């Protein structure tokens, strides 16, 4: 009997390499034998910048990023008001008219994400700044992430995020507590007005630019800067919960393994030489059986020593 071949199998196999490349462990981003844990930065983080001011209207671009997983689509949102599923970096352009108090979404741009059904993987590329060939980068501490997969109006999109070491902040001051990639209109309008002049605000996540890669390029590039202590190379060692095991931990492990090896080898030797069974299998079995009695006698002596002091001169009452 001849089996029917699935016509979609070749295309699925073609997507497998992209799936492997697109995934990365947010808990352990390893570059040049140096590991960075970016998992504390998980969740949506937003930054807003003003791109045009024509009174009474203000045009803003809000960029929302989740470096560890895809942004969640807000419940009840329309298809045109939120980035598609799989988006990691989403740009939403809004026009706020202060005259009639309106807030209109004009563009929804999926800048980076995993869109494997369209063969557009995230395909992250990481660079350790200290080992970068650029002289200006080599003087910094941190890492650079380059994320792909986005497309808007036929133009490719890309996000470049520089995670810079800053031991004074964890980098979560721009975290969003609401829906991912889209906010309620009134709340968003208030937030945009607060962030109208972003340069005056000391934010960990900063918008640098969003423009074509070059004048004749068909690719737009978003650049962000993210200051956080999790981009410091010694951050893992300074955190007790994620540091290496200490001397006493290794000492206990070695003692346990040595004791287990001694008991197993001794039991095997007693069984093969003397045909021992039960407690007789253990090396020094008699001593081990006497341990409870030895501990009981020792505890009695301790109690007697503690309670026997006083003015009796060591003699017990008759």
From TrEMBL:
Identify the GO cellular component terms for this protein: cytoplasmic vesicle membrane; Golgi membrane; mitochondrial membrane; phagophore assembly site membrane
Record-level GO BP terms? autophagy; protein transport
Q: Where in the cell is it found?
A: Cytoplasmic vesicle membrane; Golgi apparatus membrane; Mitochondrion membrane; Preautophagosomal structure membrane
Keyword Membrane in the entry? The reply is yes
What is the membrane topology noted in the UniProt record heading this document?
Answer: Single-pass type I membrane protein; Single-pass membrane protein
What keywords does the record list, in alphabetical order?
Autophagy, Cytoplasmic vesicle, Disulfide bond, Golgi apparatus, Membrane, Mitochondrion, Protein transport, Signal, Transmembrane, Transmembrane helix, Transport
Report the principal subcellular site.
membrane
Where is the sequence biased in composition, kind Acidic residues? 173-187
Q: Where are the transmembrane segments?
A: 245-265
Q: Tell me, what's a Pfam family for it?
A: ATG27
Query: Where in this chain does the record put each MRH domain?
Result: 24-234
> Which residue stretches does the UniProt record annotate as biased composition, category Basic and acidic residues?
136-149, 188-198
**Record protein name field:** Autophagy-related protein 27
